[in-house]
Design brief:
The structure is a homodimer of 394-residue chains. Chain A is α/β, with parallel strands linked by helices and 394 residues long. Chain A is built from 13 helices and twelve strands. Chain A has two domains: 138 residues, Aspartate Aminotransferase, domain 1 (Alpha-Beta Complex); 228 residues, 3-Layer(aba) Sandwich (Aspartate Aminotransferase, domain 2). Chain A starts with a helix and ends with a helix. At the A-B interface, α1, α2, α3, α5 and α6 of A face α1, α2, α3, α5 and α6 of B.
Chain lengths: 394, 394
């Protein structure tokens, strides 16, 4: 076999999201871009803020010596300090530069974390539905994913997480605002989760972590605030990327922030730096590090996403679909009108509407609509959603 | 324990190269940059060519829609095609865009390859001395490194590689021009290696690969040419980065090129793309992809490195050191005047001269001098090298 057995298995299964993304490229080539309604990938369509482009220009103009060269694996010192200041303000807990490690996006960061903390067979609890790549990131480093169902409205079910904890648990991984559901976990639930982690460590004497993947933190609506994880859990590790906030998903830039009071934080940080190096990331891309350090507080215009969400919600209601109102991110996790969500997504595809089956997120019976597309696409897609539903009933 | 047992072990050992690099930063802060002679890290000190900066400026000015967003995990189609054209010319074998996958540098590329091809316990043969991170890259994906000594002049010893081949072999990994020795493997040896791979596949019925890590391909002296791997082995996978050629080591941009006639090349390529995604690289940084695609044939001025090499060789000879003349890269792998190379490197450090022990490359009894420093540093360091040697004898 030309590839490892495990890879051979996975290539066949591939990612639903990526499969639909690539199907979209194909359909667009066939029918013309304007005739395909592609809600498959969370690929921000908004251009990066003008401050991003201006900053890149300024940095290149400046052309500092060593600006594109190696730096310590954790990143440029100044960049780490700037990010630490940002996180301190955002989370309400004081961090220094040494508590921050720049990363190749959140996906790189999560691999670095799991490489660092997981012994073979260690378990990571993830609320379901969930971003399904988490399973591969954990498996890469010989850990096991353990799913804990959320409530019907996709809020955290603390009882289910408690029930999943055991002697092999190494981490709980949450994602809020959530992909695929758009749910933002409440402060009370985060508090309860922090207490649960503490209680479990005390009762087992084992070190566990609360890993919080927060790339959508700034994409929230209706005055919702994303609770601080660091304030409620000293064993918390925050992971994020600038992919969504700055619309730069292809640039692979993010960071890991470790709670300063984490048990043996220095050992954990050394491990994370080592893993950054040996997994082959070496360091986060240099130019992008220096750019994001200067862009604290800058983000795309979230109101644009809000308008789209509202437009899409209205359209879906009008068309007769059932869903929970998303509070953040740019996804609606919609109930499939027929039990088989994969079949329904295939059905939608006949109307040139691309979405992703909920099964791709451990959420069978649902499908995900990513609304990082123009209002015009949403407006023109609504009749298609309606037709698709009517076609089922006729 | 806050980190996995394996990570805990490795943090203590850490990388010699990185240790010396960070020691260098400390000494420079203490004694002033001009009083520390840092030959520890292969961090190109030359500025990137002006074409690189100009290209970045032009790309940012152009500000194309989606330029910073997600693209297929293998990279932008146009970039892959441009690289394929470059590799075809360089290697004398025709590749298409689909045979190229952009990567986060060569370190990222190697992790992607090993993740893709290694089953647990599979062996990878590496000529010694070698870039020691190879061991961790292989271990990350549950493979085993098997070392095959080179000849005393650091040329390939085909007999040793043949002896190391067995039923568990999955790949032979070579690096030419070599880090740490500066050796460029001869065309005859590459041919013999290609024949060996073919013969082993025929006799065992197992698929194996010749992986060639070539980041220093364009940094060669005295009219030396680096032999084509693809021409001599259909099972070859070429890996490289632009770190050295363009002096952009911090930007993490490189690629993987697969021989079109590789057994089941399509399956291998799908596996490599999958691994790129699930290891968390997702894709090589977008802006840098588009930049390097436009910079075919552009490189730093290699004559500058040649002058330094000549100056350093002359100085070391004058000071009384023994070494094999390097043909490429920017390292001299010098014989340690005392058997214990670690002790000798520590001794040199007292003279504010930073090098890396050969033990850090599986080459005990040697030490590596990275001459990507200015001629002035070399000139002022020569007396220090001399003093250090004399101090040993007094």
């Amino acid at each position: 076999m030309p590839v490892a057995a495990k890879i051979s298995d996975s290539v066949g299964k591939s990612s639903w999201i990526r499969k639909m993304f690539e199907e979209g490229l194909r359909l667009k080539a066939q029918f013309g871009e304007e005739n395909v309604f592609d809600f498959s990938l969370g690929n921000p369509d908004l251009s990066p803020p003008v401050e991003f482009t201006d900053t890149l220009k300024a940095l290149i103009e400046k052309n500092e010596r060593g600006a594109h060269g190696y730096m310590p694996n954790a990143g440029f010192d100044g960049v780490r300090e700037a990010i630490a200041a940002r996180v301190s303000k955002e989370q309400g807990v004081d961090l220094q530069g040494k508590h921050v490690i720049t990363s190749c996006g959140a996906a790189g960061a999560l691999n670095v974390i799991f490489k660092t903390i997981l012994n073979p067979g260690d378990e990571v609890i993830v609320p379901r539905p969930y971003f399904v790549e988490y399973g591969t990131y954990i498996d890469n480093h010989r850990g096991l994913i353990v799913l804990a169902d959320t409530n019907p409205d996709f809020s955290l079910n603390i009882g289910n997480i408690r029930a999943a904890l055991n002697e092999r648990t190494r981490a709980v991984l949450i994602n809020s605002p959530n992909n695929p559901t758009g749910r933002v976990y409440s402060e009370d639930d985060i508090k309860a989760l922090g207490a649960l982690v503490k209680e479990h460590m005390e009762s087992t004497g084992r070190i566990i972590y609360l890993v919080s993947d927060e790339p959508y933190r700034e994409i929230v609506y209706d005055g919702i605030r994303v609770s601080s994880i660091l304030k409620h859990c000293t064993q918390a590790i925050v992971v994020t990327s600038y992919s969504k906030t700055l619309s730069v998903a292809g640039e692979r830039i993010g960071y890991i922030a470790v709670h300063p009071e984490c048990v043996e934080a220095d050992v954990l940080l050394s491990g994370l730096i080592l893993s950054t190096r040996i997994l082959g990331f070496v360091n986060a891309p240099a130019l992008m590090q220096r750019a994001v350090a200067r862009l604290t507080g800058v983000s795309v215009n979230v109101n644009i996403y809000k308008k789209r969400r509202d437009l899409l919600m209205e359209g879906l209601k009008f068309a007769g679909y059932d869903f929970v109102k998303p509070e953040g991110a740019f996804y609606i996790f919609c109930k499939s009108p027929i039990p088989d969500d994969v079949a329904f997504v295939a059905h939608l595809q006949k109307f040139n509407v691309l979405t992703v089956p909920g099964s791709g997120f451990g959420g069978a019976g649902y499908f995900r609509i990513a609304y990082c597309v123009s209002e015009n696409v949403i407006q023109r897609a609504v009749p298609k959603f309606k037709e698709a539903l009517e076609a089922l009933r006729s």
